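Q: What would this chain look like folded?
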Amino acid sequence: FLEEAKLAHRIRGSLLNIGAVAGQTVPHVHVHLIPRYQGDVPDPVGA
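A: My prediction, written as structure tokens:
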């Protein structure tokens, strides 16, 4: 489990784009807001 914990720690920042691991040099919040409307996709599960 130690190796899994090391790997999870290394990729966490890259997946979330947080901190130095992800290349962030200036602390800030960055959010994408994508509007959704009823019926905009045929199967909204996971969309």
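The chain has one helix and no strands.
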